[in-house]
Amino acid sequence: MRTEPRRTGHCQLAVASALLPGLVFVACHPSLETSPHCQRRGLVARSVTVDTGFEGAAVEVMRIAGNLVQLCLLPDGGGRHPKPKTETGPSSGGRHPGQWFYFRASELTKGELYQFQLDVSGARAWRSYKGYEVCTSYTGHHWCRCLGTLYDSGARILLWNVTAEASSCFFAYFEPYGLGQLESLLREAADAGAERRTMGRTTDGRSIDALCFPPGLLQTGREPAGEPTVVWITCRQHAAETQASFFAEGVVQSVLSEPLPLSLAIVLVPNMNPDGSARGHTRENAQGVDLNREWRPKADYSQNGRSPEVSAVQAAMLDTGVDVHLDVHGDEAADSAYSYPGLPRFRAPDHVAQLFDELEEELHSRSGGFYMPRPGSGSARTAAFWTGTQFGALSLTLEMPYKDSEPTKACSKSCRRLGSIAVDAIRSLGPRLGRFRRSRTRP
Ligand SMILES: [Zn+2]
C-alpha cells in the first residue's frame, strides 16, 4: 500500500481479489487468519493492534485473528449498538451508530496482506456504503482512498484489503480534521487580518469561535460601516462531517487572497461541534444532542444547556442580522455536493427562491460538476430554516459527499475548492444580495 500518489494520483492499495474467492466476507479466507509471513519463517505471529486512544477516533474491535481484523461501528457516546430488525430500517430502542470510524492499525508487517471487515449493520445510513472507498494514511496527514473497497449489502460488511508498507496505518470514514488544524486555521486567519471571536463555550469547555471578515462585525453595539450584506457560514454542526471544515479552509483562502468588497461581510464558524469532533461522534455534541435539530423558533435552549453551541451562534446572529446563510454538511449517500433551501419553496418569498436558483447555478457552473442541483427541503428544526424564518435570509443547507467524485480521490481537495467557489459565487451575486438585504426583517 502506498500513501503517496502515483502518476494517476491514486493511492494504489492492493486489492488481492484472488485471495477472496466468492467475496465471502464474514467467513474469512483461512490464509488471512494465519500470517503467511510467519508461516514461511516459523515465527509466532505478532498480533495486529487497533488503537482508538486519540482525538476523534471511534471503532470497536470484534475480533482479530492473524491478518484478519473484524470491527463494528460505535454509537455517539460509546456503548454497543443493536442490530436492525429489518432490511428497511433499524430496530426500535437503543442507540444506533453513525457512520464515522477512525482508527490506527499497528504491529503490521511490511509486505503482508491484511483484511479489514467493518460491520455497518447497525448504522442508520448503511445503504450509503455502496460505491464508497475507505480513506487511509500512513502519516495521519496525507490521505488517499483504499481503491477496491467492497461492500456486501447482504451482510452489511464493508471490506478492504491492504498490503502493508509500514508498521502502522490510519483508516477513517473521511479525511479527519482535528482541533489542532482548526486552531491553525483560526490563528492564520487572525494573523492575516480577520477578527477571531469566541462566541461561547461548549459543555467540555472548548471555545466556539468565529472569524469575521472584515473585523468588527461581532463587536457589540458597533454598526458595521456601510451596512454590508451579512453572510454567515456555519460548518460542522455534525462532528464527523469533516468536509465542512475543509470547506471553511477554502472560504478563508478565498477571502484572504482577494479582500471582500465593502458591501459584503462574512462571519465564518469553522466548527460548531468541537466536543463531538474530539470525542469521535458522528453527529452529536457532548450531551448527545444533534445540533441541527436544536434551532426551533421560540425555544430557549440556553436555559437547559443542551446545546450551548447553538445558543452562542444564535445570539451572535441576532447581533449582526443575517442576509445569507450557508450551513455546511456532508451527506453519506450523495455522489456530489448539493444544497436545499432553508425554507420550502412554497414558504419562501419569490426573490429568495430566485436567488437560491441563481446561487445553485453559480456553484454548479464553477465547480465542474462537483456541485449538482437537486430538489429537496430540510427539517423545520434546522439552522437554515431558523435563519430563513427569523431574518428572511437566503438560507441553505449545503451537503458534500463522502464518495469523492474527483479522479484524484484526494478526499478533502474538492471540499476546500467548493468553499472558495462559494465565496466567488456570493461575490458575483453581491449587488443582487444588496437589494435583498434591505428587505430583511430584523428581530
Ligand atoms: Zn450534517
UniProtKB/TrEMBL annotation:
Q: Which cofactor does it need?
A: Zn(2+)
Signal peptide positions (record): 1-28
Pfam families assigned: Pepdidase_M14_N (PF18027), Peptidase_M14 (PF00246)
Please list the coiled coil stretches.
none
* Keyword annotations from UniProtKB, A to Z: Signal
Domain (Peptidase M14): residue spans on this chain: 175-433
Sorted alphabetically, the Gene Ontology BP terms of this entry are:
proteolysis
Q: Which InterPro entries does the entry link to?
A: Cytosolic_carboxypeptidase, Pepdidase_M14_N, Peptidase_M14
Q: Which residues form the active site?
A: E399
Output the Gene Ontology terms for molecular function. metallocarboxypeptidase activity; zinc ion binding
Respond yes or no to whether keyword Signal is given for this record.
yes
Give the family from UniProt: Belongs to the peptidase M14 family.
- Protein's name according to its UniProt entry: Peptidase M14 domain-containing protein
To which species is this protein native? Symbiodinium microadriaticum
